[in-house]
Amino acid sequence: MTIKTPYVSEKASMMLDTDGKLQFLVRRDADKTKIARAVEEMFAHEVTSVTTMMTMKGQKKATVTFADSKAGEEILSRLGIL
User: Fold this and answer.
1) How far apart are CA 67 and CA 8, in angstroms?
2) Is the pLDDT reported for residue 1 higher than 90?
C-alpha cells in the first residue's frame, strides 16, 4: 500500500482551507505517479499535482492537489477526520 495515513496538522488544515490540498504520509519508495494513482483509486477524485518531501523523522510526506477544490474536505469527512 502506497499511502499510509492522512497527515493532519495545523499547517495541513490551513492548506486544506486555502488551497484544497491534502497531505499524506506515504511509503519512502513511492514516486509521485504511484501516489497520484493510489489517491485516485482510493478516493475517486482527480489529482492534478503531487509534491513530496522528507520529514525530519525520516518519513515521506506527500501534498496532493485535486481538480475539485472541495474534494479534500469530502475525503477527510469520509475518513471521519473533519
Assistant:
1) 21
2) no
pLDDT tens-place string over residues 40-76: 999 999 999 999 999 999 999 999 999 988 898 999 8
3-state secondary structure of 23: strand
DSSP 7-51: ---HHHHHHHHHH-EEEEEE-TT--HHHHHHHHHHHH---EEEEE
Burial class (CB in 10 A: 0-12, 13-18, 19+), 59: middle
Residue type, 78: R
Q: Show the domains of the chain with their CATH numbers.
A: 3-79 (3.30.70.330)
